């Protein structure tokens, strides 16, 4: 059996869909939601969108992990730098872990403030300040770590593509796997 050159189509689809959704959620959380006062009536709608996307990301993450663990992968790419080659698998698993922590801390914050009732059922009001909940601190710190890890991931992919010219990005594209 020949070795695969590309990731499974389901994994590729989930990668790009999640990349888009995570980018939207991080942007929304760090710009619109952060700057809106909790007394602003528009915040409930913004939270509804953010929470819905966050829950979808959680479902997709589980699906992606199942697909990743049950399909063949191309061989590990090398950078020519031993330290970077050892760091790459850790960085990939860190992305999974950080996304899982974002979803978990978001759920924790939602439960701490009974946000499902406020946001989806219109019962009650938003708290004066979310920052009093430990889950909010975790959510904010993990968001920053996730953004940094994503930037490192993109820089590494561009290094492979533009400097090493090893066509690494084609592995996360659609087409024949062999």
Protein architecture, described:
With about 180 residues, this protein is an all-alpha fold. The protein has a single domain, classed as Fumarate Reductase Cytochrome B subunit, CATH 1.20.950. The protein has helices spanning about 10-35, 40-70, 80-110, 115-120, 135-165. Helix 1 (about 10-35) packs antiparallel against helix 2 (about 40-70), helix 2 (about 40-70) crosses helix 3 (about 80-110) and helix 3 packs antiparallel against helix 5. The protein is elongated, with a radius of gyration of 19 Å. The N and C termini lie close together (about 10 Å). The mean pLDDT is about 95.
In brief:
With 178 residues, the chain is mainly alpha-helical. The chain has a single domain (9-74, 82-169), classed as Fumarate Reductase Cytochrome B subunit, CATH 1.20.950.
What's the topology here?
Elements: H1 9-35, H2 42-70, H3 82-112, H4 115-121, H5 134-164
Helix pairs in contact: 1-2, 2-3, 3-5
**Annotation field: number of helices:** 5
* Global structural class: mainly alpha
**H-E string:** HHHHH
Portion in strands: under 5%
Terminal Cα separation, in Å?
10 Å
In the residues, how many domains can be counted?
1
Largest sheet: none
CATH topology call: Fumarate Reductase Cytochrome B subunit
């Amino acid at each position: 059996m020949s070795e695969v050159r590309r990731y499974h189509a389901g994994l590729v689809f989930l990668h790009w869909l999640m990349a888009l959704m995570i980018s939207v959620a991080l942007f929304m959380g760090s710009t619109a939601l952060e700057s809106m006062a909790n007394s602003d009536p528009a915040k409930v709608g913004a939270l509804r969108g953010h929470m819905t996307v966050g829950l979808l990301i959680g479902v997709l993450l589980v699906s992606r992990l199942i697909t990743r663990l049950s399909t063949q992968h191309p061989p590990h790419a090398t950078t020519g730098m031993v330290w970077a080659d050892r760091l790459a698998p850790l960085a990939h698993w860190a992305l999974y872990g950080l996304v899982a922590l974002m979803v978990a801390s978001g759920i924790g914050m939602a439960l701490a403030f009974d946000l499902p009732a406020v946001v989806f059922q219109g019962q009650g009001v938003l708290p004066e300040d979310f920052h009093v909940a430990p889950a909010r601190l975790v959510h904010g710190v993990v968001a920053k770590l996730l953004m940094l890890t994503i930037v490192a991931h993109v820089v590494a992919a561009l290094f492979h593509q533009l400097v090493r010219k090893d066509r690494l990005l084609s592995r996360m594209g659609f087409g024949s796997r062999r």
